[in-house]
Amino acid sequence: MTVKTAQTFGSTVHSVPTIKDTGTDMKNHIHSKRLHQSNIKMQSVVVLAFFVAVACAAPLTPVENAVDISLVTETTATTTTTTPIPIVRQQMTVENGIHKNSFETGHGIVVEESGSQKQVGILPEESGAISSGSYSYTNPDGSVITVNWVADENGFKASGDHLPTPPPMPEHVIKMLADIEAARIAAATATPAEIAPTL
């Protein structure tokens, strides 16, 4: 590649590249163009990384809604208690595959749980742990909240006076679930000859 210089407008010199027909000059020109494009891409990545770093460092809350940390620390310090809450009752037993656990704290939390292993299906590998229990505590308004729960082959179910109840399951869904269970049982109890396709 050769460079021609020309003088225009008094003392200003402009350089104008011209490409000769030789292959070497053309290759050098293409190579320098690729390097220039590569440098532009790298600069774009660096600028993008800078903006991502700035965005990550920005506060999550607007400044006008920010909370003074000294007030939080002071408020927390006045409401924190250093008196440990005693466990007034605790019992745990495990016998013949059945476990029971219960405890009560000095400020009114009561937890009870029991469970065992159960065959939940026809096949031997379809066994699992089932358990049930309850817990209760005193709400800040003074009312006692109690939750009773069961965890078995039908899933986890919790109940309590304070919990919303779901609407009843539609009849077509109940029938569909029963059909699926019947097909699963039929497939599990079928002999290989009954399962083999006939040609």
Automatic annotation (TrEMBL):
GO MF, one example: structural constituent of chitin-based larval cuticle
Swiss-Prot/TrEMBL keywords: Cuticle, Membrane, Transmembrane, Transmembrane helix
Descriptive protein name: Endocuticle structural glycoprotein SgAbd-2
Pfam family of the protein (one): Chitin_bind_4
TM regions (residue ranges): 42-60
GO cellular component: chitin-based extracellular matrix
InterPro entries reported for this sequence: Cuticle_Struct_Prot, Insect_cuticle
